[in-house]
Amino acid sequence: MMYPHPIIAKEGWPYLALVGVVTLLAHYLGGIAWSWPLWIIFLFVLQFFRDPQRIAALGRDLVLSPADGRIVVVEKTNDPYAGREALKISVFMNVFNVHSNRSAVNGLVKEIQYFPGKFVNADLDKASTENERNAVVIDANGQIVTLVQVAGLIARRILCYIHVGDRLKAGERYGFIRFGSRVDVYLPLTAEPLVSVGDKVFSTNTALARLPGLD
To answer: Is 203 among the residues known to form the active site?
Structure first.
């Protein structure tokens, strides 16, 4: 499941091709006076679908951020996907963040649960339970870690490429969410959070928490 990083995510190639052709045609027919708005749209699509290489934070017991963005929740709550009390850390992604999702830990995929739903602002707490979402429950050396991709106000497609029984490596690319969204991470209560609400985080580069017993 390791994904070759060609700088631009594979999910963006059809969009870039379509917008690029329309932009070049408009530029050819009408010059920059007609095509400049399309060039802006092209550059926006280009930056949205960027997919840079990432180097994992050092430490065997670290839970890595599965997404780029801003921390909007750090709290103890119920994990409805694994049926337990858990530490929840949520990362909100705006349209200018990288939207590739990467595994937070090494582990075995035990469950994948998809839920259709609404598309309210992913920055709101109710997005975790009301929006379209896809939950991946991972057994990380006996520790349960749940990663939930949540669609947002603009997002209309959650992509998840893994299956039950797959083994993931920390930092491995496993999905993508098109346009603004969030990822909720549920951890055992023994986890020690390393981030606070408002912190800016980067997928794989940033450690969200320390969880004793990880590989």
So the answer is: no
CB 92 within 8 A of CB 70: yes
Which of the following is catalytic: 103, 181, 196, 203? 181
Contact between 153 and 180 (Cβ < 8 Å): yes
Q: Give me the amino acid identity at 142.
A: G
d(CA 92, CA 71): 6
User: pLDDT tens across 98-132, in order?
Assistant: 888 999 999 999 999 998 865 555 455 555 666 78
Domain boundaries, the chain: 7-51, 62-210
> How long is the chain?
215
- CATH class of the region 62-210: mainly beta
With cut-offs at 50, 70 and 90, classify the pLDDT of residue 80. Answer: very high
